[in-house]
Write a structure and sequence with these properties.
- By secondary structure, the chain is α+β, with helices and mostly antiparallel strands.
- It is built from three helices and five strands, in the order H-E-H-H-E-E-E-E.
- It has a three-stranded antiparallel β-sheet with strand order 1-5-2.
- Helix 1 crosses helix 3 and helix 2 packs across helix 3.
- The radius of gyration is 15 Å and the shape is globular.
Amino acid sequence: MFRKNLIELLLRNPMTLSQIARLVDESPGRVADDLNHLLRSLKHTEYKAVVEPARCRACGFEFSAEKLTKPSKCPECRSTWVQEPKIGLENKTEGGQPPSK
């Protein structure tokens, strides 16, 4: 039930994991589990994930888009000034070419 609500929540509205957790009044760990499951099952829907990866605000290092939780510190400069990744959804036909027939 919660995973279906995530689609409506994230459709064309990118949010961080902590923003989602506050909004739905759940723990970040539970939201992360549901979000990971949702992202794996998107291939069976008309939606695709759009992830803005976490970045170090000090040196600009960009983390992998697969990491949905906020890293504790930057591996390059060791700064803890890290911006959380943002996760959003959009229709597969938006922002790209329409699916081929």
